[in-house]
Structures are given as C-alpha cells and as structure tokens.
Amino acid sequence: ICYHYYPKAPRLLLWIMIEIAIIGSDMQEVIGTAISFHLLSAGRIPLWGGVLITIVDTFFFLFLDKYGLRKLEAFFGLLIAIMAVTFGYEYVVVKPDQKEVLKGIFLPYCKNCGHKQLLQAVGLVGAIIMPHNIYLHSSLVKTREVDRANQKAVKEANMYFLIESTIALFVSFLINLFVMSVFGQAFFQHTNQEAHDVCANQSLFLNQSIFPNFPENNETVTVDIFQGGIILGCYFGPIALYIWAVGILAAGQSSTMTGTYAGQFVMEGFLQLRWSRFARVLFTRSFAILPTVFVAAFRNVGDLTGLNDLLNVLQSILLPFAVIPVLTFTSMEPLMKDFVNGIIGKFLMILITGLICAINLYFVVTSIISLNYLAYYIAISFVLLAYVAFVCYLIWTCLISHGAAFLARGPHTRFSYGLQS
C-alpha cells in the first residue's frame, strides 16, 4: 500500500527508516545473545566471542525455515514460553510487593525522575513496540487464506486476528511485568557498596572477568541486563543468574527471524524487490555484527549494554514512521470501505501517536541542549530538523486521509479519493 500511495522520495525515506529499525533490532539480538553466553559460561566466552556465535544461529533459523512458516512460528512460540517461564521464575523468587505492582499497573508514577529516567521510559516504548513488527504483522496477516471478497469471512478473520494479537500482547505484558517488577524489587534502593559486599564472596566469580565493577560507595546501584543477572545471582543464588541468562538468550533469538521476515516484507513492499531470506540475513547481520563486535572487543560490557539502551530509544524515535502510515491507511474510506476506523479508534490512535511524537521531540531537544560541542550541536540539529520535517509530511498525508481534502496537492489527492483506475 505504501508503494502505491506515497511518491518515490518519501517512500524510499520510509523504507530507510524501517531498515534502520530492523538493523537496530538485530544489533540488540546480537548484544543480548553475547551477554547471555558470557553469563552462562561464567565469563569463559568473551563478549566478542558471543557476538561471533550469533552468526551460527542465523543459519540455524534458515534451516528451520525450510520446514515452513508454521513450524517456525511454533518455534517462536517455544522461545516466548521459555521467556515467560524464566522471567516468571525470577518474579516468584524475588517476591515483589503485589500491592505496589498493581498500583504501578493502574497508576503509573515515578518519584524524583529526571532526564535519565525519561530516556529509560522512551527506551521501554521502543523495546516493547518495535516499528518493523507493525509491518511484519500486516504481511503475516496477508499469508492467511481468507476469502477477501466475502465481507463476512473478513469480519470473522478480523475477530480471530484480534484474539491472536490480544493473547500475544498479554503474554508480552506479563513478561515485561516480570522483568520490571524483579528489577524494582531486587535493586531499588540498594547501594553499590551493598552489591559489592554481597557479590565479593560468591563462587560465581572464580573468573574475575565477569565480576561487575561496582564502585564502593553509597550511591544507588545502577543495573542493566548484565549487572541485573549478576546481582540476582548474588542475592538469590546461581540458579537465578543462569535462568536469567537463558531468558535473555530466548529473548534475543525470538527477535532474530522476525527481523529477517520483516526486512524481506518491507523490501518487497517498498521497493518491489524480492530477495531470498539468506540474502536478507546477510544484509542485516553484516550491519549489526561489525559495530557490535567492535564495541565488544575494545570496550567493556557497560558500553555494550549502554548501546543496547540507546538502540531501544532509537526504536522509539522511529516508531512514528510505522504508526502514522497505519493510522493514515486504516482511516481511508476508499481503501478500507466498511472496515475504516471509527471515531473512537481514530481519536485513540491520534492521541497515542501525538504522545509518542511529543516525547521523542522532547527527548531529542533536551539531548541537544546537553551537548558541549558546537559541531555535535549543529549536526544533530540538522538531523532533528529533517526528522521533524518528515514526520510533519506524514502527518500532512494523514490529515488528508482523515478528510482534509483541501490540503491535497498533485499525487497526494489519492490519500483522499483512493487510487484512480
């Protein structure tokens, strides 16, 4: 649909944005897998070695792909089940305060939060809602055998797709709830000195390369997916650490082929260019491996997990390039006919999209203000202007699809009246 409605230049820009999201997601998979192998081997497998191992898992998934999409989906289901069980185990072991968990679900709050906490919040949005997966889900729906000329059959299929998506999102919600609750209960208000003292005598750290570098002071401990696993092992035993690492491994692997499929569908849709999955994997993984192995080899694990956090933020920043086109096309009556968005659906999607764009804009602007170098300031300012301009263009086409036909010019009239046969 994007290919037929957007002119060539914005269509290519959209494709580039989604490709960046896919490569970023693949880098996160590489980072997560490398850290999990580093933890499972008690530091015997170096981080750069874990990064190189991810080359092997790519060919494993390509092997599974030969047995059909359903088999691959079943394997993804197994990985998600492993994530739910492992992170659920951590939740049971840590025993967070259930009242506080429920309070946080229905009344989200954050005491004394600043720019750093906002960065984490923006990253959470990007980590949970990856832009390319919106395109992937749309393409996977097309693979289902549905009589699209039969309105009743389409309505029935929509109902089952809704149930499927609801279950998937609920499981995702539970997994993220487990992780956030474990981090909040196990690490909140613990100091670096406390964490250092507890971990110092653990047999987990016979290999000193895995021992986290906790400053011996009374500042609140800062954790990431690596240090989080270490501290869980210190406080709750080695089993907690290894189960955490298995969960990270499953999380990383579950995103590998989704990125491959999404990349293939995105390339076919935007460019009308068909590549084999093997070529797609090589293309994406080549961009993901090189910077990641460089950071893993020449920097420390803190830099690697920091890169992972920044990639989460990148996913959130790129989210409008998936959400706005969805809102645009699902609101076009000539395209959707009886299945066009209702008033409530449009209002909610506009509200959510506007909130995401506002948060991203605030984060980028405050980041620019904090820069100390004029060259960085100027460069990022140009990037910000280009980003805002493109988002405004997408909003413009979205307004046309919502009935503002007076804004339409040239080929953009198709957003109001549909494709002319």
Automatic annotation (TrEMBL):
Q: Which family does it belong to?
A: Belongs to the NRAMP family.
**InterPro entries reported in the protein's UniProt record:** NRAMP_fam (IPR001046)
Which one of the record's GO molecular function terms can you name?
metal cation:proton antiporter activity
Q: Where found in the cell?
A: Late endosome membrane; Lysosome membrane
UniProt keyword DNA damage present: no
Tagged with keyword DNA-binding: no
Question: Which segments cross the bilayer?
Answer: 12-39, 45-64, 76-94, 118-136, 157-179, 225-251, 282-301, 313-335, 347-369, 375-399
| Principal place of residence | membrane
Q: Any idea what this protein is called?
A: Natural resistance-associated macrophage protein 1
